[in-house]
Amino acid sequence: MTPRIVGLLALLPMVLLLLAVVWEDVKRQRIPNRLVFLGAGLGLMLNTFLPEGFGFVSHAPGGVGFLNATAGLASGLVTLLPMYLVRVMGAGDVKLMAMVGAFLGLNDILGAILATFLAGGVLSLGFAWKTGVLRRTLQNIRFIVCSGAVKIAGGSVPTIEDTPESAGRFPYAVAIAVGTVGYLAWKSIWRIGWF
């Protein structure tokens, strides 16, 4: 079995867990801790015990090691934690990004996070349009930007209490899954030339 096949097989559990979490988030609006913790542990274990490399989707596929996988987990957690603290995102979403970091390691988690934010923006607008709240969503965005600018110009800091009522809840696990898988596909096709 080639290292590339081993690398792709090592990512299969992450993809299956992402699909299961998306199902739960869409159906129940909840991300089960058991799936996320199982995934984080599995990601750390695979990166620790599989032959060493530069990540499962890289020019030298293999595990990144326990410390790098732990750093990826921490980066996923810390990057999204402020959004949870201001109540823009749920705790399950933050833990899910940490799980992805345990699989991808420090080098790839940042790309997956950027792709997730991009996917989240596009999918959120599509979701708002489909559910009929796009106009209200755009009005909320305009209000947040304008009132935040006025507060900053006045020498104060905008707070979460300044935001208008939410136009709806978007299952962000979808954005995390689409962003992560999209980033890995882009990396494997364009940057590495696997296919």
Q: What do you see in this structure?
A:
It is a single chain. Helix 1 packs across helix 4, helix 2 (33-49) packs across helix 4 (91-130) and helix 4 packs across helix 6 (173-191). The chain contains 6 helices and no strands. The radius of gyration is 18 Å and the shape is elongated. 36% of the residues are buried. It starts with a helix and ends with a helix. The protein has 195 residues and is mainly alpha-helical. The model has no long low-confidence stretch (mean pLDDT 86). The protein has one domain (3-131, 168-191).
Chain-wise SSE layout:
Elements lengths: L2 H26 L4 H17 L16 H20 L5 H40 L3 H20 L19 H19 L4
Based on CA atoms alone, the radius of gyration comes out at 18 Å
Helix/strand order, N-terminal first: HHHHHH
Counting DSSP H or I runs of 4 or more residues, the number of helices is 6
Distance between the termini: 17 Å
**Could you name the ranges where pLDDT drops below 50 across 5 or more consecutive residues?**
none
Q: Which strand-content bin applies to the residues? A: under 5%
Number of domains: 1
Global structural class: mainly alpha
Question: In brief, what are we looking at here?
Answer:
By secondary structure, this protein is mainly alpha-helical. The protein has helices at residues 3-28, 33-49, 66-85, 91-130, 134-153, 173-191.
What keywords describe this structure?
single chain, 195 residues, mainly alpha, 6 helices
